Amino acid sequence: MLLTYQECLDRYGSDYQLKKEIRNGNLFRKEKGIYSTARNTSEIDIIMRKYPKAVCTSKSAFFYHSLTDVIPDHYYLATRRSDTRIKDPRVVQSFLKDDLYEAGIMELQYNNSNIRIYDRERMLIELIRFRSKMPMDYYKEIIQNYRKLSYELDFGLVEDYAALFKNGTTLMNMIQMEVL
């Protein structure tokens, strides 16, 4: 279980007791302000605990949804425009307007980790929006995987997400040509 510094203080009473638990091997310091009761924890757990308001998007979301087998070189996280900048070299942050940020957030269980992530329908919209910024073979791999699972997608939800954008009609036309 991952704990913040404040949660450790609440649990153990003082900084002295916290350091005593670390020395005894009952608690492990993972990063500044993040502690774990287990010796080994995954990096995605640490990232999700450190940035609880952030949502996985872009290459990270495509990977965790098993739409590609390309492991992302960074953690791609979306936050609100009003949130502070994440100064972690492992993270690529994108800032979104509140209405765009909220649409499609879900919890995904991935290798015993709970990840805040956008659902597959929202990621289909993101894929079409940013297709020109992706390598063509990467884009084609993800589109082919969307075609394979098109019967599982809720296209009413895709239309709702597309309506949030100025060019929503164009996005839906492209989705119909590419996926259906």
Q: What share of residues is helical?
A: 40-55%
* Main beta sheet: 3 strands, antiparallel
Please state how the strands of the largest beta sheet are arranged side by side.
1-3-2
Write down the secondary-structure element order. Answer: EHHEEHEHEEHEEHHHH
> How large a portion of the residues is in β-strands, by DSSP E?
15-25%
Radius of gyration: 19 Å
What does the model show?
By secondary structure, this protein is α+β, with helices and mostly antiparallel strands. It has 2 domains: 2-41, no CATH class; 52-178, no CATH class. 44% of the residues lie in helices and 20% in strands. The protein has helices at residues 5-12, 15-24, 43-50, 58-64, 98-102, 120-129, 136-148, 155-162, 168-178, and strands spanning 2-4, 28-31, 34-36, 55-56, 75-80, 91-96, 105-110, 113-118. Strands 1-3-2 form a 3-stranded antiparallel β-sheet. A hairpin with a 2-residue loop joins strand 7 (105-110) and strand 8.
Topology (elements, then pairings):
Blueprint (H helix, E strand, L loop, with lengths): L1 E3 H8 L2 H10 L3 E4 L2 E3 L6 H8 L4 E2 L1 H7 L10 E6 L10 E6 L1 H5 L2 E6 L2 E6 L1 H10 L6 H13 L6 H8 L5 H11 L2
Parallel strand pairs: 5-6
Antiparallel strand pairs: 1-3, 2-3, 4-5, 7-8
Which properties best describe this structure?
180 residues, alpha+beta, three-stranded antiparallel β-sheet, 8 strands
Can you describe this structure in just a few lines?
The chain has 180 residues and is α+β, with helices and mostly antiparallel strands.
